Task: structure prediction
Amino acid sequence: MTPPSHPEPTKAFYDRISRAYDLIADANERTARLAGLHALALQKGEHVLELGFGTGNEIIDIADLVGETGLVLGIDISSGMFEITRRKLAGKNIRTPLDLRVGDGRRLPWAESTVDAVYTSFTLELFPLEEIPGVLAECARLLRPGGRMAVVSMATVKEGQNTSTAEKAYVWMHRHFPHIVDCQPIDVEALVAKAGFEIVKVLEMEIWTMPVRAVVGTRQVLNRSGEISSH
Result:
């Protein structure tokens, strides 16, 4: 595990908060992260990518789920987060092969059809809206036909739902002070579907009265007749 340098400006922010991130966010996010991960229903021997592994808590969970015969790939923009993860893993007796890198989620450094599943939590909404389809396309490229993807994200309010005061303030802060509030609620279900995934599970949650959604999709592929098939 050797982290290369990374030019993204977002990197500096997460490098600065990496040592305190578990204290800042994990207590609130952990339940939602695990709900999305368990919805992915990982099996022993599977190859899995985590996009935005942060401080490595779910890397440990994924390694336990896929076991020694599996493989865990991971990418994160922050070398600070990478270092926290490296130290955390050093204290664990993990026998699952790991390939963790610092890099850009828009250009994943692995070959196509490499993994059975992709997992990402509180990461997709950090990208500008116009770049999210490209990130999802990269994830789809790495997935084997019929592979699954689970996305846990801050979510937009659905029609008929009330927008809380906290969410209104959060959206306003992101619009006016993106350097402080760097993520934004997204219509994760629609984005995943538009990226060519068949939605198979949606979990509705909330953090601080703000909607959080876990969406699991199966990569759709064309059959011999040129029709979309999930298998």
